[in-house]
Amino acid sequence: MLATKLKGHITAQHQLQVDLPTDLPPGAVEVIVLHSTLTPTLKRRSKRKAAHPAFGIWADRQDIADSASFAAQLRAAIETRRDRHG
Fold first, then answer.
1. Residue 86 pLDDT > 60, yes or no?
2. CB 21 within 8 A of CB 3
3. In whole angstroms, how far apart are CA 2 and each of 14, 17, 23, 24, 80?
4. Within a 13 Å sphere around the CA of 85, how many CA atoms are in the beta-carbon half?
5. Is the separation of the CB atoms in 30 and 24 below 8 Å?
6. What are the residue ranges spanned by the domains of the chain?
7. What is the pLDDT of residues 73-84, one digit of tens each?
8. What b/e sequence results for 65-82 when a residue is b if at least 16 CB atoms lie within 10 Å of its CB, and e otherwise?
9. Which residues, listed in sequence order, are joined to residue 8 by a DSSP beta bridge?
10. Rounded Cα–Cα distance for residues 79 and 27 (Å)
11. End-to-end CA distance of the chain
12. Position 40 confidence tier, pLDDT thresholds 50, 70, 90
């Protein structure tokens, strides 16, 4: 597999335009688009998350320095927990 990084742009008609190097061989390709700006849809999703009742639940906790690490520890504890039944 050959990987080539190319720069291009998306037109108003939603067409991807890139300049391909002449030494790139013909054949099928897979395209991954990394856009440099947030779209309105992504911004709306972020606002929805912020509106969730649990958003910021640990904001004032002095004992949690890294909330992502703390959440990972909680998930690990739940995944390895053994409940007793009966």
1. no
2. no
3. 26, 20, 12, 9, 41
4. 2
5. no
6. 8-80
7. 888 888 876 666
8. eeeeeeeeeeeeeeeeee
9. 18
10. 45
11. 55
12. low
